[in-house]
Structure formats: structure tokens, C-alpha cells
Amino acid sequence: xxxxxxxxxxxxxxxxxxxxxxxxxxxxxxxxxxxxxxxxxxxxxxxxxxxxxxxxxxxxxxxxxxxxxxxxxxxxxxxxxxxxxxxxxxxxxxxxxxxxxxxxxxxxxxxxxxxxxxxxxxxxxxxxxxxxx
Length: 133
Fold this sequence. Notes:
The protein is of the alpha+beta class.
């Protein structure tokens, strides 16, 4: 009788254990709540590193390309909208690559990779930034 009871208990536990990875089970799919729903584990994300680069002052906008700096200062116009259009056209004409141009009346913060071509310029009323894409 004890052997029969042991066989019944093992027969009842075997499907649960095999689906949870116990006794060589694959663990695929969702098993009963006793083992949790395995599924894929999320990969750990790297913590954001602290910025250790350079920053610009209001008077000296950052730029890592002298040619781009010259183009930026030459093509600034009286308004942010006009400057944005003028800069984009000049960048396309000079064929320096693909750029995003952003102009604003207020300065703004941005972060780019060190190997990305970028430049900033300003006139009395607005700021413009160009970033290679």
C-alpha cells in the first residue's frame, strides 16, 4: 500500500517538476504557480555613466569641426526659423553629410557621442545646433 501511495504522489508531482526544470525538464511555457512563470529573464541594464566631457559657455558654443563652425556663423539669420532653413540648405549644398539642425530662442542642453560631428552658433536673438546623423 505504501508503495502504491508513493507511486501516486510521484505521478502527480512529475508533470509539475518537469515543467519547472526539476529532473531535467525544459521549463518552456508557463507552469503551475508553485514554480512561477519562468520565461526569459530580463537582461541587466548598465547604469548611466556620469558625463565627464566638456561644456560650452554662452559666449563660445561647442563645435568639433572648424568648417562646420564657419558654415554655422556665416548662415545665421535674423530669426530661428530663417536660420534653421538657411543652415540646412548650406549643409546640403556643401555636402558635409546628413545633419539635424535645431534653432531656438533659448539655449538648450544636449548630449552627443564624441565622434559625432556637431556645432553650435548663436546670434543676438537665438541659438542653433547642428548634429550629424
